[in-house]
């Protein structure tokens, strides 16, 4: 297991080496970027009050030149930004940063589709986010939610290689983080959800992150995952590795799992699903079965 963790970690050294950026942080959620080679050529400020270059985030992204090959920082000042945001494939090397994740929130209310409903969609390589909250507000965040009221509502969908997130928060109930494809690194992030809330076919390392499991209830007792108290168990992960040759998988190292609900560590989204939890503190939220084979009994 430790060797596989090292393999995943080495994948992300390439991001750091290429960008020449290193992030320092503390446990208050205050992350700062140390630009060792003065690699950032421009800073764009987003400020809702008008004291910046743009009042909203998407126009700031649109202003980045197509085919960009130099790091551009988009600094987001305090505010709740109610908008869908897309970083297209040709807008590489963007760094989005704020002082605190609790003060810079990107949110939108849309549900029903695993990709199109996402508040934030990343399609470009070489992306870094520091101290940003990504949130889908369709499913209201509360301790317990009726199962039939929950819909697919991603906070973020990551469909590009070489992306890193430091001190960020991701909030929804179902499909919160779409870790679709590519190599991704999450450090000291906070991820909230109930059902499949970290899912996809990414090759990703979650380092020192907090996983917050909310509760889900049902009006019937017919679901096979029913647990005591009329509650049913959710699923933290739904990883989509499709073959033995597929290098994808999720590694959670040094993380904490907390919450008021119950959950499986994950269920197999594809037949070769691969997820590792190591050096992780698990509160009394994980059901004894641990894992669910979903549609692949006997394979995973």
UniProtKB/TrEMBL annotation:
Keywords: Aspartyl esterase, Hydrolase, Signal. Residues 44-295 form the Pectinesterase catalytic domain. Residues 1-19 form the signal peptide. The keyword Transmembrane does not apply. GO terms for molecular function: pectinesterase activity. Pathway: Glycan metabolism; pectin degradation; 2-dehydro-3-deoxy-D-gluconate from pectin: step 1/5. The keyword Oxidoreductase does not apply. Gene3D superfamilies: Single-stranded right-handed beta-helix, Pectin lyase-like. This is pectinesterase. The lineage of its organism: Eukaryota, Viridiplantae, Streptophyta, Embryophyta, Tracheophyta.
């Amino acid at each position: 297991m430790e060797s596989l963790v090292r393999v995943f970690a080495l994948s992300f050294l390439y991001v750091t080496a290429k960008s020449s950026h290193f992030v320092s942080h503390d446990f208050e959620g205050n992350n700062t970027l140390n630009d060792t080679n003065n690699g950032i050529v421009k800073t764009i400020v987003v400020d809702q009050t008008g004291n910046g270059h743009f009042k909203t985030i998407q126009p700031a992204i649109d202003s980045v030149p197509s085919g960009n090959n130099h790091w551009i920082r988009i600094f987001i000042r305090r505010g709740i930004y109610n908008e869908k945001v897309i970083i297209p494939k040709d807008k590489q090397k963007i760094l989005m940063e704020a002082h605190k994740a609790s003060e810079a929130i990107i949110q939108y209310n849309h549900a029903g589709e695993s990709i199109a409903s996402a508040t934030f969609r990343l399609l470009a390589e070489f992306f870094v986010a520091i101290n940003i909250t990504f949130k889908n507000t369709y499913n209201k965040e509360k301790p317990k939610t009726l199962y039939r009221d929950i819909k697919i509502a991603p906070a973020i969908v990551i469909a590009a290689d070489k992306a890193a997130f430091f001190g960020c928060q991701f909030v929804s109930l179902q499909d919160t983080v779409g870790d679709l494809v590519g190599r991704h690194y999450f450090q000291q992030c906070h991820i909230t959800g109930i059902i499949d809330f970290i899912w996809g076919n990414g090759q990703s390392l979650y380092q020192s992150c907090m996983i917050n499991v909310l509760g889900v209830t049902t009006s019937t007792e017919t679901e096979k995952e029913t647990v005591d108290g009329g509650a049913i168990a959710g699923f933290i992960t739904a990883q989509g590795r499709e073959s033995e040759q597929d290098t994808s998988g999720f590694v959670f190292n040094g993380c904490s799992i907390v919450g008021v609900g119950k959950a499986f560590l994950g269920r197999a989204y594809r037949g070769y699903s691969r997820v590792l939890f190591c050096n992780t503190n698990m509160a009394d939220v994980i059901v004894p079965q641990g894992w669910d084979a979903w549609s692949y009994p006997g394979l995973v």
